[in-house]
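Title: [Solved] Large ribosomal subunit protein bL33 3D structure

Original question kept below for reference.
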Amino acid sequence: MAHTKVALACSVCGSRNYIITANPNRQVRLEVKKFCRYCGKHTLHRETK
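Solution (posted by the thread starter after getting help):
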């Protein structure tokens, strides 16, 4: 059984910088502050499908 993967996209520029494994028990989309190399600063990244 393969793990499904989702991307974390920057809320400022929209680039998908991080790939994580999907958690089927999570009801809301994950939102974390991470470093965006395209913006050059820490921004809010949201889980995409």
